[in-house]
Amino acid sequence: MELFKKEALSVDVGSRLRELRQERGKSMRALARLSGLSTNALSMIERGRTSPSVSTLYKISEALEVPITAFFRTEPPRDKVVFCKAAERSRISFQRGLWEGLGGEFFVGEVEPFMLSLEGGASSGLYGMIHSGHEFVLCLRGQLEYEVEDKRYILEAGDSLLFAARMRHRWRNYGKTVVNALVVLSSFQRDEKPSEFHLTSHPTSEISQTDEPTREE
Asked: At what angle do helices 13-23 and 39-46 cross, to 10 degrees?
């Protein structure tokens, strides 16, 4: 069965960059200084004259302090009942990983389930994330390390973790095989879009391997 045949939506990245920059009150020159890119390159992107690479988008997203998915955000119609065929999942590739929506992005309620597929070394970043609501994680394959408020957990196939998402947390693929995990976010503030925090993978920002993580039985 083909799980990934749904094509990504066409999004005007240049217009989104302009909106995000203006929302944060940053001039083109200030953004250039923070991102390390030239003002000409940024101007070309905003005017739709060139398409930025993934590495360029990461530089801009870090300078603007937004998840990289903020450039692709759209507001789809929402419904009280969402039926999602496996081959028609929304999907977003990010550095060393893949996010697959399971219908929450089209649902009227405050719950969003999604799948994460993570290559070895994939990490959610150095500083961790905080968002509203609750977070449930079920590891389906591999070894997934979660750090919640400085306490570390190794999730193997069948293991789960549940916590209040206001606690600072981060994750990484602890082993060498691909990790597949189901994540369910619930009771979050609608305008926060917490799933975006899970799409800012930075494989170079690894959780230290010198300390032994907590393995909950």
From this structure: 120
